[in-house]
Design goal:
Strand 2, helix 2 and strand 3 form a beta-alpha-beta unit. This protein has two domains: 195 residues, NAD(P)-binding Rossmann-like Domain (Rossmann fold, 3-Layer(aba) Sandwich); 99 residues, UDP-galactose 4-epimerase, domain 1 (Alpha-Beta Complex). By secondary structure, the chain is of the alpha/beta class. The strands form four sheets. Strands 3-2-1-4-5-7 form a six-stranded parallel β-sheet, sandwiched between helices. Strands 6-8-12 form a three-stranded parallel β-sheet. Helix 1 crosses helix 8. The longest helix is centred in the N-terminal third of the chain and has 22 residues. It contains twelve helices and 14 strands.
């Protein structure tokens, strides 16, 4: 089979997606690449790993030629909160990295998966039941790069025939990878602090609804979309895909049902609060459901139970 290249393989999505892809297609068939950050031991020892810089096109081309890559999962990105602190870095990594991947894909006939985000929307977007096709005027650098990325992927498909596909991810929750500078990081941090300290200080206000998804569903969405029949894909790129919508107090209440001593207070971060308020409360993902059969397996209750179980095992902390 043709090989699979994963960029950003040391990141929140990449570290887990790499292992699922290797389990599915074989360790030697999935090449993990990253920049500066070394992937964890499991990724590093289970198949080929290389350090590359996606802003340097030759480093991507070398991997594709060396391994005869047929599919690229391009996950290398600067996330929302970090992007606001260093917008020049975010533009350089997010835009030039994607452009280089698409150029290599055009030359070597590769398929490309590009994850977009709820960050691609903005304050003028309908916040409830956000349509698949709607106003996209983000007011963050991260959002700007995601909208531009969606359009660039569409362009490379229509102009050059590059098989580009992608989803607009909501906030992603995982027990394996630690938060990496995103606005929805609280929904991961809260579990670690609940188990370790029995309390958490949230940087978003109560009542701040955001779409969320448990990582096993997010990984499955990426693979299922890339395996979908292309003839049935009308949108191809930037499918709304979601699983649940909640505010901080809802996840806290769900945790408290399992850990009764848990408490939460608030200390609002103005930057991340402003970003969160510009994002949808919940997305309409009917296009994904109709065109490639998307359906999440986890809701808030089942995710919370699994997160607490897995993190307590990971930290070797016995629950009261």
């Amino acid at each position: 089979m043709q090989k699979i290249l994963v960029t950003g393989a040391a990141g929140q999505i990449g570290s887990e997606l790499t292992m699922v892809l290797r389990k599915t297609y074989g360790g030697d068939n999935v090449i993990a690449t990253g920049h500066k950050t070394k992937p964890d031991k499991t990724v590093f020892e289970s198949g080929p790993c290389h350090f590359i810089d996606c802003t340097e096109i030759n480093t991507i081309a070398e991997m594709v030629k060396k391994y005869k890559v047929g599919t690229i999962y391009h996950l290398a990105s600067v996330l929302s909160a970090v992007a606001e602190k260093d917008p020049q870095l975010a533009w350089n990594v997010n835009m030039f990295g994607l452009y280089n991947v698409l150029e290599v894909a055009r030359e070597y006939k590769c398929c490309v998966f590009f994850p977009s985000s709820i960050g691609a929307f903005g304050p003028t977007t309908p916040l409830d039941n956000t349509p698949q096709d709607t106003i996209q005027r983000p007011n963050t650098m991260y959002g700007v790069t995601k909208v531009a990325g969606e359009l660039l992927c569409d362009y490379y498909y229509k102009r050059f025939g590059v098989d580009t596909r992608g989803v607009r991810y909501p906030g992603l929750i995982s027990y394996k990878a630690l938060p990496g500078g995103g606005t929805t990081d609280y929904a991961v941090e809260i579990f670690y602090e609940a188990i370790k300290q029995k309390r958490y200080t949230c940087y978003l206000k109560a009542g701040t609804y955001l779409d969320m998804m448990y990582m096993p569903d997010a990984l499955r969405a990426a693979i299922e979309l890339m395996e979908a029949n292309p003839d049935k894909l009308k949108h191809r790129n930037a499918f709304n895909a979601t699983a649940m919508s909640f505010a901080p107090e809802h996840i806290a209440a769900t945790i408290k049902r399992i850990l009764p001593k848990f408490t939460m207070d608030f200390k609002v971060d103005p930057i991340r609060q402003a970003i969160a308020e510009s994002w949808p409360n919940n997305m309409d993902d009917n296009a994904a459901r109709q065109e490639w059969g998307w359906k999440p397996k986890y809701d808030l209750e089942s995710m919370t139970k699994d997160m607490i179980e897995k993190i307590s095992q990971k930290l070797k902390i016995k629950l009261d």
